[in-house]
């Protein structure tokens, strides 16, 4: 119990520091890129800061979020938002153990948080969101399942003020996605762990057609941020440029599962011959 209380106290301190930093960033007249807003309380990289800044600037009326691919929710894009701003949300993960862990956390009853244990595909995502009562506009939609993300996002009909998507820079500037497979598991598809998701170009093709504007990525080059057209002028007035940062992660794996400590760019040849879909043309080609 003592250790639990210490953790709760530390979490409160971290949230307070995050709120202080968010206020400092919000006072700046303009930012050069979204990365200038970065800080991390619970997010993997600097997404907590970017999301806080976008909300401060865009001022969406909807204060709800949907995030999937959250694991145990200790590291996520919306936990800071839930605690610091008292938004309501739905989180989904494919692991029942992860969802059980979240439900045993105080966060599950202290805040308006709904949880679902489900392996997400394009046929069930709409029902999963509807089951939580989120059939209207959202404030935030965060997509990260390291798999058929493009095809799942394509089936989400709700509008969101801000959409966050994890993209795969291995595909470069081409509008590529892995082919749809309802049982897609990243490391089962290719031992390297590089064959998953879709390029930023692919997500831009999908979302720009729907009236969203790409406003930049995090500095890690992993997550891209889109703003619904009705909020774009507010964001653009405060942001000098929309920049995509290069990804320098060295998470590529050998066949035995060990890390190679090489970047994606250094390991592109490993995916030679694997199929991808050009989402603009619908054609399946090989890398």
What is the average of the pLDDT values? 94
Report the major sheet.
7 strands, mixed
Instruction: Find the structural class using helix and strand composition.
Output: alpha/beta
Domain count, please report it. Answer: 1
What is the CATH fold-level name? Rossmann fold
Question: What's the total count of β strands?
Answer: 10
Helical residues, percent: 25-40%
CATH superfamily: Vaccinia Virus protein VP39
Low-pLDDT parts are: 1-5
SSE order = HHEHEHHEHEHEEHHEEHEE
Number of helices: 10
Span between N and C termini? 53 Å
> Rg from C-alpha positions?
19 Å
**Strands of the biggest beta sheet: in what spatial order?**
3-2-1-4-5-8-7
Instruction: Using the coordinates above, name the CATH class.
Output: Alpha Beta
Task: Tell me which CATH architecture applies here.
Answer: 3-Layer(aba) Sandwich
* Proportion of strand residues: 15-25%
Shape type: globular
């Amino acid at each position: 119990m003592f250790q639990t209380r210490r953790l709760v106290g530390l979490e409160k301190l971290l949230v307070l520091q995050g709120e202080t930093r968010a206020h400092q960033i919000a006072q700046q007249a303009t930012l050069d890129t979204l990365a200038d807003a970065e800080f991390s309380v619970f997010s993997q990289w600097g997404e907590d800061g970017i999301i806080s800044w976008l909300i401060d600037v865009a001022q969406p009326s909807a204060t709800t979020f949907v995030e999937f691919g959250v694991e145990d929710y200790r590291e996520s894009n919306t936990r800071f938002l839930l605690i610091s701003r008292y938004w309501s949300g739905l989180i989904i993960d494919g692991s029942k153990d992860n969802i059980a862990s979240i439900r045993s956390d105080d966060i599950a009853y202290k805040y308006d948080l709904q949880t679902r244990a489900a392996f997400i595909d394009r046929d069930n995502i709409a029902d999963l969101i509807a089951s939580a009562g989120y059939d209207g506009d959202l404030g935030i939609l965060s997509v990260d399942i390291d798999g058929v993300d493009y095809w799942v996002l394509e089936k989400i009909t709700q509008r969101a003020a801000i959409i966050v998507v994890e993209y795969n820079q291995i595909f470069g500037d081409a509008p590529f996605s892995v082919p749809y497979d309802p049982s897609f598991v990243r490391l089962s598809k290719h031992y390297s762990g590089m064959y998953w998701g879709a390029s930023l170009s692919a997500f831009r093709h999908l979302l720009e057609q729907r009236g969203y504007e790409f406003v930049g990525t995090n500095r890690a080059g992993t997550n891209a941020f889109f703003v619904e057209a009705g909020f774009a002028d507010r964001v653009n007035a405060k942001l000098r440029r929309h920049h995509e940062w290069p990804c320098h992660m060295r998470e590529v794996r050998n066949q035995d599962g060990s890390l190679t400590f090489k970047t994606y760019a250094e390991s592109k040849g490993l995916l030679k011959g694997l199929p991808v879909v050009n989402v603009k043309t619908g054609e399946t080609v090989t890398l």
